[in-house]
Amino acid sequence: MKYIKFFLVGILFGIVMSKAEIISWYRIYEMFKFQSFHMYGVIGSAIVLGTVSMFFFRKKMIKTFEGQEIHIAPKKSGLFRNLLGGILFGLGWALAGACPGPMFVLVGKGVVSILVVIFGATFGAFCYGLFKDRLPH
Amino acid sequence: MEFISQPWAWYVAGPIIAFVMFLLYYFGERFGVSSNLETFCSIGGAGKFVDYFKIDWKQNSWNLIFVVGGITGGFIASQWLSPTDAIALNPQTIQDLADIGIQNAGATYLPDEIFSIETMFSLKGFIILITAGFMVGFGARWAGGCTSGHAIVGLSNLELPSLISVIGFFIGGLVMTWLILPLIF
């Protein structure tokens, strides 16, 4: 039963992604065309409030529900990794009009073709693991 | 109910996403969707070929459950909370899309030119879908995160690697939207 809370948080995530049209291909297109403030507002306000959460986590003023300190694992650094991986991700994001979260929410919306995208993404992750030692990081 | 059924504004969605992130950390885990792709590989037996995938995937079960919740939330929203499937787009966006070969922009959430069943079963359509997914999956794992892990969590935590990654996301997204999409359809 310890997993039910993650299921419920996931439902909230799926509903907000869907109701705010973040799962719409068009919202990603117009973001990259700078023709709407919507996505910038969504991501920007999430980051501003996220910064406040992170501040309280770092100051240990908020702990987990079990009373443990919250540590945010630092991201792996490396100019090539972050920049080249980021560019490849961005190319896919603008073509699919969906990043990994929205891809799954679209399954719930009943979009069959998104399963091909998810298969491609899983295969992409597999190929990264396969070639990772030969890639610049 | 009026509030629920109309599209939600950015100032409603952004804070809820921040709350989702907060809850995942409060429950002792983290916010990052693309790592599930690696978990799929591990479950599928990729560890037999590549040591990178030899992990005890059960420790990531919570994140798979989160994804199942996301799918369920998408179902609930589209079945019961959305009276219309239309997206109110900027008229300029609709015109720009018509010019590159995507018609009826905003009539539904997704363009038929990419996501309809007929397109999926055409060679070109299938290649577009699978290539888009491949770039997202490969790129996210190379960069070490996607929009959730880098743009939301990483930037909230003031991390330089995440700032560089998000700049990369935008370089890739701008190149695709402005230079490559007009050539595809």
Write the layout of secondary structure elements.
The complex is a heterodimer of chains A (137) and B (185).
Chain A: H1 4-19, H2 25-32, H3 38-58, H4 79-96, H5 100-109, H6 114-131
Helix pairs in contact in A: 1-5, 2-4, 5-6
Chain B: H1 2-5, H2 10-26, H3 35-43, H4 61-81, H5 91-99, H6 112-115, H7 117-120, H8 123-143, H9 147-156, H10 160-184
Helix pairs in contact in B: 9-10
Folded structure, characterized:
The complex is a heterodimer of chains A (137) and B (185). With 137 residues, chain A is mainly α. The model of chain A has no long low-confidence stretch (mean pLDDT 96). Chain A has six helices and no strands. Chain B is mostly helical and 185 residues long. Chain B contains ten helices and no strands. Chains A and B meet through helix 1, helix 2, helix 3, helix 4 and helix 5 of A and helix 2, helix 3, helix 4, helix 5 and helix 7 of B.
Quick structural gist:
Chain A has helices at about 5-20, 25-30, 40-60, 80-95, 100-110, 115-130. Chain A is mostly helical and about 140 residues long. In chain A, helix 1 (about 5-20) crosses helix 5 (about 100-110), helix 2 packs across helix 4 (about 80-95) and helix 5 runs antiparallel to helix 6 (about 115-130).
- Measured as a percent range, the helix fraction of chain A is 55-70%
Averaged pLDDT of chain B, please?
A: 96
What form of chain B results from the Cα inertia axes? globular
Query: Total strand count of chain B, please?
Result: 0
- Strand proportion of chain A, as a percent range, falls in under 5%
Mean pLDDT of chain A: 96
Any idea what the radius of gyration of chain A is? 18 Å
Unreliable stretches of chain A (pLDDT < 50, length at least 5) are none
Estimated share of beta-strand residues of chain B: under 5%
Task: Name the features.
heterodimer, A: 137 residues, mainly alpha, 66% helix, globular, B: 185 residues, 10 helices
